[in-house]
Specification:
Number of strands: 12
Radius of gyration: 21 Å
Number of helices: 12
Structural class: alpha+beta
């Protein structure tokens, strides 16, 4: 017996939790509005090069309750969300095996994320080297072969779908429970289940399930951190938000350019590249669906910005591998160029469509 839930190759996957979300939501165009309306505002951490475990952090802002809370899934209007915490599973005991729980979830059309110790699974680059938590995305199983089908950034940051034996996955989960300090780094805190489902009381709110022009333009203005609009982001000094994230990436590169022994974590830059890739996806989707001015010009500019960011990622990887700080210096020039271009293009796009927003008072006509 085999069952595999629908997934697609996601347009973005620098971080697994983003890749798995897009792998689900891109399966049906009915789900696109949530992607189009969100994934605009971003954040990173200040002093990024010197933060142990978090030197690659750049992610999307869904709320103001800290980061990596998985709020974009647990509160998603398109999803039914369930969680079995570590403590609850231990309390339940041996009434059901991990494999039985996961198979039952898949049989009920639920996508699953389960925390594991990468040290115990051969498909991870950290196999038998470092104890560290990660969360493979379970999308199916095959009973006869005794395997789950799972997606994650298993090796070299590539988001792929692999097979994991039932017993290997169970062992990797149980090992995590024996290492509470490692387990404490799990943003899930247990096994999470996601199923496409619209709550009855939310169905009447059509704006939740349709492309929202005003929300998109307001999100773009917030991303630009325009005076008066950025006030809500000035209260937490731990983060940088929106367009200011470029400054932290430039900080990373300047640190890396100081010594041939330096290493620059490309993950934050890959995430910034993915942010531009989503913007291209968004603008391409809405150009024929919304009555907005200058979409085509904005779209072409973002295609160039995405291409430039892709070049930055490749140069950083090359600089790390060959200890070539000249690559980092070239990246500094490219980042300064694309930041200036993005500010110019996005500001013009918002101004051209001010009648669709509530932002008029922030712009001088």
């Amino acid at each position: 017996m085999e069952k595999v839930l629908p997934i697609v190759d996601p347009i973005v996957s620098s971080f697994a939790h983003v890749g798995m979300t897009f792998a689900m939501f891109q399966t049906k165009e009915d789900y696109y509005p949530w992607i189009i309306n969100n994934y605009i505002q971003i954040y990173t951490l200040r002093n990024l090069p010197f933060l142990p475990e978090r030197t690659g952090t750049l992610d999307y802002l869904y709320n103001e309750y800290g980061d990596w809370t998985m709020f974009h899934l647990s509160a998603n209007p398109y999803l039914e969300y369930e969680k079995i915490s570590f403590a609850t599973l231990q309390f339940i005991g041996g009434s059901k095996s991990i494999s039985e729980i996961l198979i039952n979830g898949i049989n009920n059309d639920k996508y699953i994320c389960i925390p594991v110790d990468m040290h115990e699974l051969k498909i991870y680059g950290m196999y038998k080297t470092v104890h560290r938590v990660h969360h493979p995305f379970i999308v199916g199983y095959n009973i006869e072969r005794g395997v789950f089908y799972a997606c994650d950034t298993f090796r070299n940051g590539k988001f792929t779908c692999e097979e994991i034996k039932f017993e290997d996955l169970t062992n990797a989960y149980n090992m995590l429970l024996r290492l509470p300090i490692v387990a404490s780094w799990s943003e899930l805190g247990g096994i999470c289940f996601y199923k496409f489902y619209q709550k009855p009381w939310q169905k009447a709110n059509e704006q939740l399930y349709s492309v929202n022009c005003k929300m998109i333009l307001n999100g773009m203005a917030q991303y630009l951190m325009l005076p008066g609009i950025n006030s809500s982001y000035a209260t937490v000094g731990y983060y940088r938000y929106g367009i200011d994230c470029y400054e932290e990436l430039l900080h990373w590169l300047n640190v890396g350019a100081q010594s041939e022994e330096s290493f620059v974590d490309h993950r934050a830059f890959s995430a910034m590249r993915d942010h531009k890739r989503i913007m291209v996806f968004r603008l391409d989707y809405i150009r024929d669906k919304l009555k907005l001015i200058n979409v085509e010009n904005c779209l072409e500019s973002y295609r160039y910005i995405e291409k430039s960011m892709n070049l930055v990622v490749r140069k950083i990887i090359k600089g790390d591998m060959k200890k070539d700080i000249g690559q980092f210096k070239e990246c500094i020039e490219i980042l300064n160029e694309v930041k200036a271009l993005e500010v110019e293009v996005l500001t013009k796009f918002i101004k051209n469509n001010l009648d669709q927003t509530s932002l008029q008072k922030y712009f001088i006509q």
